[in-house]
Amino acid sequence: MYVYADNAATTKMSETAMKTMIDCMENYYGNPSSLHSVGQEAATKLVEAREIMARYLHANPSEIYFTAGGSEADNQAILSAAAAGERKGKKHIISTTFEHHAVLHTLQKLEKQGFEVTYLDVHRNGLITAKEVADAVREDTALITIMYANNEIGTIQPIAEIGALCREKKIPFHTDAVQAAGHIPIDVEADQIDMLSLSAHKFHGPKGVGVLYARKGMQLVNVIEGGAQERGKRAGTENLPAIVGMAAAFRESCENMEKNKEKITALREQLINGLEKIPYSVLNGDRTHRLPGTVNFIFEGIEGESLLLLLDDKGIAASSGSACTSGSLDPSHVLLSLGIPHEVAHGSLRLSVGEYNTPEEMEHIVNSVPGIVEYLRNMSPVWEELKKGERKHFLQK
Ligand SMILES: *Cc1c(COP(=O)(O)O)cnc(C)c1O
Question: Is it true that domain 15-255 has CATH number 2.40.240.10?
């Protein structure tokens, strides 16, 4: 059995999205900026895609900017708010310690340029409160950027409350909604969001395409200079096949959201109920304020990487918070931000499931993990020390 349980890293494309893209490549190959009819037919497709993205976010099509993914949207949103703030002498930003690196590294770049960033600590349950955000606000706060849902542990922040607070204090509010979009309902009006990033490949669309939603009146700076595409805010001939593929996938995800949510939540609960029986293990993040399909566990006394390789041998594709794209051995900054000690954070496992998964697959996971954990513990020097009482357990049995 092969089980793909790494949907938070990326998803398999939906049939609908693929068919839409092929039709676009075959029949709408014109440049939307060209004046001839081949170009104008392509332009019509672009308009349609923009309308679809806007409709399901409760935005206006003129507030949708197509980008080459979530990272670019995060960069542009943050740099734009920083530039607007700087013009008014405001150089303070509020965020959290457990944002995606697309946000954190952009903030670090701004710190080098003299901005001050308050990184709010996240509680052990993977949440922050609106009150904590309010307490961090200063006269010179130029931006509040807080992710909608976390990519490693799946917790969902109180976005509407934070949005209301930002609106009251007249501070621009950006949210990285890459993990949330297509999975839970998003309403930029109700949530009072000023800027939002999303990425198609996290909801069964193609890779390398995303959206920056920017409320009317927000001033954007360009990350890519060139032609006048995207109302002058994002140059480059539009990646039309990817854009229409994203719109098709987004519509499909949003239309089926209720049905999928029920199914995926049941799969997630099957995983949690099975895995929490393992001694000295814990589910990271709040039990209920979480995405339907994301589960993150730590198992004391083991290394996440070894666990992943052994799971792969059993046909299970998962991820570990400690696996880092840079190949460094540092544990996940997300788990550390929850107050989990270094050596314990290494033993993490993220399983992210979606509507293409089945209960039988969850059973295969639940049956495979305990034996592998036991096997790894038996050869772990850390586990040996824990057993002998030379080291204190962090987790309860
Ligand atoms: C995947 C992801 C991103 C990056 O999106 P890309 O389209 O891969 O650039 C940003 N933020 C979060 C929370 C993500 O999960």
Answer: no
